């Protein structure tokens, strides 16, 4: 199973596991006397002595402790939620291996932006499995596991702990969990020993502290340390700032000295100053800057949420009684949106709570707001949460939290808020903000704070229009568009806005104002939000903002009733009428519930007789979501991950949905195509093969493919941008597929390390591309041999008018081959052979051939070996076009 795949992959890499979580630590700490055993001996241990120190040679005291620690951990890690345990309710989720796009200087704004968003099929292929991990001999000791709020990070950690405690991960002698919230303990009174054995989350009392600690140090490779409770990657990143030399020395000299802060110890572990051989598992939401962290990470894993099967399993565990379960499943079917929300395990739990409470008879909530509303049905709690949400939205400082510092919150509300991401931990956050304002945080606060309008303390009634503009995430300045908005904050905003549009009766329950005051207040706020949303200029919004807007409108639109309210309906119509015709979500992760929301908005567009061209590339949309969107009657054309589209076609063929399939094939577009990853070419190869064979599967031919795949026929421009490292890996595939792209007009293969061998293959492939007009072969290490082969093909390309061989290694011999074919290239107007290896001899020959090329406008051929006088001579004589 996937969970076991992860755990076994962890097992493969790790040894002892320590998890640090704040709650119990201070209490336990006081019961431990400061240690006295020196660890110098263990530090000096040779690999041989290290082996001697393995589990089997542990002293009875250490063994006993480990058993006791495991028993304690088994007990403490069991509970997922009140009444739910791992043993009874855990669903084995998928963990996906992710890759980074690039690590450049300016790309570290947000992890989301740095990760390659793969299609659904590739994502499934990347789920971590035994075989993949075992086959990988690279030591993975720095693992980053991320997932958005509620995706099950903490639950997975608990499961890992439980498994270790049940001896299912024998490669670790110790597992420790460390909680980021402990960074608030600022006194310099801790040592590594107290951190692991007293402060860590599942620490249990120990009678042989020194013996256990010595064992940990002796076999640090058999230790797993899990960091949890960090709100975002940036919080880790801050711990990676270089430690002062004296601190490093003192930590290494005596890590048992109780004179360090938690921060220093965390930093030292993360920077491999302490326990250098241990395995680190860093868990967080995927937000914040993290370039340093990403550079260190050996492996990036992501929790990908519940699949349909997982949801079914969860429901069957949640409702063990089969009658209740069937009723719940049926009831859930009545709300597609809630069904899709269950993709998030945290929300799945909330949905089950609602199903359970409603006894499967009441109408289900239709929005996230409605769901939260029903879960915390107590008036007091909801009113508190709604005002928090509103306050948070109003005081949107540096993406800050909505959890006011001094506000007394009930445990229940705090738990709910934190779990859903509506609230974020204030203590950590305050630090980040402060740092941001002091300018250490680069991006952070400063400027934006000034943008926020005042009047926050004046109470809700005085929210001004200006405030609304500032608080909703639709600023259209270039900076605001670039800034990643997505995180827990958007949920807060959605909730605040959604609450305004909840049914009047529901809202009435929340306040203590008189009926009229309340009505006016809600009405004026509703009007402000509506006016703002309706006043937006859609063309100025980024794809992420358009999606956010769809989310807002959904929250405002639907209450408990079947149809949406009057204002909501108006907003939805307005949205549908104004969505850009070329609607792109390229690069914006589209979750299943969001796909539903977009589908809803587009459907409305149908009522207004509007049709759309939809771009879903790099959105990670699931195939079932793709199916829903492509199936809409008012979609003119669509783009999406080619592999996913092919899978959709295959599914449609299998289910016999011929008409749908025909539409899905004819509406699909891939022009213009820029291949930046290896998989892009692999997918294209598959599509071209369908096009050439005129059938989807190996067996029968398909009548709707009689003319091949329209998307391939209509592909006019292909840019191959895989770079010198990845490019050569898929060039052979490219040579195979090129002949299938008969109508290609523009082929850009710059910087792909083609070389002479590749040039020969390319020459063969090019022969069939009779429509080719522009060919860029710059910077490709092509020499005389290669150009000789290519030159023969160039003659066969009647429409080629622009050819670049800039910066290759062509010398005079190659120039001669080119000169021989130039007069036969009927359409050529521009040739670039600058920065090659030819001398004045080659230049002279090429220049001379121009006499017979009447159409040629420019021939660029400068390089250091050609004396400048040569050009002057050529220009004065007969070739003014040679540069
Ligand atoms: N694999 C799972 N099986 C069963 N329930 C799960 C699973 N994962 C998560 N849940 C449910 O979702 C809830 C939220 O999960 P969890 O607290 O682990 O999320 P998280 O990713 O740590 O969120 P946050 O970022 O807010 O801390 C859990 O309390 C549990 O009810």
Automatic annotation (TrEMBL):
<dbReference type="InterPro" id="IPR001611">
    <property type="entry name" value="Leu-rich_rpt"/>
</dbReference>
<dbReference type="InterPro" id="IPR007111">
    <property type="entry name" value="NACHT_NTPase"/>
</dbReference>
<feature type="region of interest" description="Disordered">
    <location>
        <begin position="429"/>
        <end position="462"/>
    </location>
</feature>
<dbReference type="Pfam" id="PF13516">
    <property type="entry name" value="LRR_6"/>
</dbReference>
<feature type="compositionally biased region" description="Basic and acidic residues">
    <location>
        <begin position="430"/>
        <end position="452"/>
    </location>
</feature>
<keyword id="KW-0732">Signal</keyword>
<keyword id="KW-0433">Leucine-rich repeat</keyword>
<feature type="domain" description="NACHT">
    <location>
        <begin position="141"/>
        <end position="286"/>
    </location>
</feature>
<dbReference type="InterPro" id="IPR027417">
    <property type="entry name" value="P-loop_NTPase"/>
</dbReference>
<dbReference type="GO" id="GO:0045348">
    <property type="term" value="P:positive regulation of MHC class II biosynthetic process"/>
</dbReference>
<protein>
    <submittedName>
        <fullName>Class II major histocompatibility complex transactivator</fullName>
    </submittedName>
</protein>
<dbReference type="InterPro" id="IPR032675">
    <property type="entry name" value="LRR_dom_sf"/>
</dbReference>
<dbReference type="InterPro" id="IPR003593">
    <property type="entry name" value="AAA+_ATPase"/>
</dbReference>
<dbReference type="GO" id="GO:0045345">
    <property type="term" value="P:positive regulation of MHC class I biosynthetic process"/>
</dbReference>
<dbReference type="GO" id="GO:0005524">
    <property type="term" value="F:ATP binding"/>
</dbReference>
<keyword id="KW-0067">ATP-binding</keyword>
<dbReference type="GO" id="GO:0045944">
    <property type="term" value="P:positive regulation of transcription by RNA polymerase II"/>
</dbReference>
<keyword id="KW-0547">Nucleotide-binding</keyword>
<keyword id="KW-0677">Repeat</keyword>
<dbReference type="Pfam" id="PF05729">
    <property type="entry name" value="NACHT"/>
</dbReference>
């Amino acid at each position: 199973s996937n969970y076991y795949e992860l755990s076994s992959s962890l097992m493969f890499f790790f040894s002892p596991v320590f998890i640090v979580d704040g709650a119990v630590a201070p209490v336990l700490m006081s019961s431990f006397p400061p240690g006295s055993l020196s660890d110098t001996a263990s530090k000096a241990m040779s690999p041989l002595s290290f082996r001697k120190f393995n589990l089997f040679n542990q002293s009875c005291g250490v063994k006993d402790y480990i058993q006791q620690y495991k028993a304690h951990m088994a007990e403490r890690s069991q509970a997922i939620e009140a009444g739910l345990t791992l043993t009874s309710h855990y669903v084995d989720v998928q963990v996906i291996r992710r890759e980074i796009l690039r690590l450049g200087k300016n790309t570290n704004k947000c992890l989301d932006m740095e990760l390659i968003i793969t299609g659904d099929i590739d994502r499934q292929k990347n789920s971590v499995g035994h075989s993949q991990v075992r086959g990988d001999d690279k030591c993975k000791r720095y693992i980053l596991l991320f997932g958005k709020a509620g995706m099950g990070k903490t639950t997975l950690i608990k499961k890992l702990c439980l498994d270790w405690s049940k001896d299912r991960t024998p490669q670790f002698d110790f597992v420790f969990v460390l909680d980021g919230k402990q960074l608030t303990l600022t006194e310099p009174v801790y040592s590594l020993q107290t951190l692991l054995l007293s402060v860590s989350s599942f620490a249990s009392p120990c009678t042989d502290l020194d013996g256990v600690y010595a064992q940990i140090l002796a076999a640090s490779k058999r230790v797993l340390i899990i960091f949890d409770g960090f709100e975002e990657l940036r919080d880790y990143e801050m711990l990676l700032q270089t430690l002062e030399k004296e601190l490093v020395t003192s930590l290494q000299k005596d890590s048992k000295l109780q004179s360090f802060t938690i921060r220093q110890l965390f930093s030292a572990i993360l920077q491999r100053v302490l326990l250098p051989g241990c395995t680190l598992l860093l868990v967080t939401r995927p937000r914040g800057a993290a370039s340093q962290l990403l550079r260190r990470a050996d492996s990036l894993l992501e929790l990908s949420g519940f699949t349909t099967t997982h949801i079914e399993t969860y429901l069957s565990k949640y409702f063990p009684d089969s009658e209740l379960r069937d009723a719940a499943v049926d009831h859930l079917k009545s709300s597609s949106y809630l069904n899709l929300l269950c993709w998030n395990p945290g929300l799945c739990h909330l949905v089950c709570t609602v199903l359970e409470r409603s006894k499967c008879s009441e109408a289900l909530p239709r929005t996230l707001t409605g769901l939260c509303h029903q879960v915390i049905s107590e008036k007091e709690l909801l009113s508190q949460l709604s005002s928090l949400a509103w306050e948070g939205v109003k005081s949107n400082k540096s993406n800050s939290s909505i959890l006011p510092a001094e506000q007394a919150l009930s445990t229940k509300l705090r738990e709910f808020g934190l779990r859903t991401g509506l609230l974020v931990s204030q203590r950590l956050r305050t630090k980040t903000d402060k740092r941001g304002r002091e300018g250490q945080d680069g991006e952070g606060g400063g400027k934006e704070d000034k943008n926020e309008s005042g009047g926050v303390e004046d109470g809700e009634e005085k929210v001004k229009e200006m405030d609304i503009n500032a608080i909703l995430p639709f600023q259209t300045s270039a900076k605001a568009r670039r800034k990643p908005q997505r995180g827990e904050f958007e949920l807060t905003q959605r909730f605040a806005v959604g609450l305004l549009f909840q049914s009047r009766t529901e809202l009435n329950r929340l306040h203590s104002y008189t009926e009229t005051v309340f009505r006016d207040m809600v009405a004026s706020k509703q009007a402000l939000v509506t006016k703002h949303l309706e006043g937006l200029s859609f063309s100025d919004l980024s794809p992420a903002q358009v999606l956010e807007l769809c989310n807002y409108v959904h929250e405002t639109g639907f209450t408990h009733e079947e149809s949406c309210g009057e204002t909501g309906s108006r907003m939805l119509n307005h949205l549908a009428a104004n969505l850009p015709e070329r609607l792109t979500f390229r690069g914006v992760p589209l979750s299943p519930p969001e796909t539903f929301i977009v589908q809803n908005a587009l459907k409305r567009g149908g009522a207004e007789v509007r049709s759309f061209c939809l771009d879903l590339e790099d959105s990670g949309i699931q195939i079932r979501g793709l199916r829903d969107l492509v199936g809409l009657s008012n979609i003119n054309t669509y783009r999406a991950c080619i592999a996913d589209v092919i899978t959709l076609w295959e599914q449609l063929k299998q289910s016999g949905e011929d008409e749908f399939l025909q539409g899905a094939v004819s509406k699909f577009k891939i022009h213009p195509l820029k291949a930046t990853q290896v998989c892009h070419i692999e997918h294209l190869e598959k599509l071209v093969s369908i096009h050439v064979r005129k059938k989807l599967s190996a067996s029968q031919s398909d009548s709707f493919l009689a003319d091949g795949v329209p998307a391939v026929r209509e592909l006019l421009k292909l840019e191959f941008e895989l770079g010198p490292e990845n490019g050569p890996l898929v060039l052979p595939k490219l040579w195979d597929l090129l002949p299938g792209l008969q109508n290609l007009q523009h082929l850009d293969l710059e910087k792909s390390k083609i070389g002479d061998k590749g040039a020969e293959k390319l020459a063969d492939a090019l022969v069939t591309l009779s429509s080719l007009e522009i060919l860029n072969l710059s910077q490709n290490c092509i020499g005389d041999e290669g150009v000789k082969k290519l030159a023969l093909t160039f003659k066969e390309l009647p429409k080629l008018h622009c050819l670049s061989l800039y910066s290759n290694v062509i010398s005079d011999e190659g120039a001669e081959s080119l000169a021989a074919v130039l007069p036969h290239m009927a359409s050529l107007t521009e040739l670039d052979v600058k920065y090659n290896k030819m001398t004045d001899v080659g230049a002279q020959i090429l220049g001379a051939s121009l006499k017979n090329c009447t159409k040629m406008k420019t021939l660029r051929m400068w390089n250091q070996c050609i004396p400048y006088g040569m050009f002057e001579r050529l220009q004065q004589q007969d070739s003014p076009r040679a540069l």
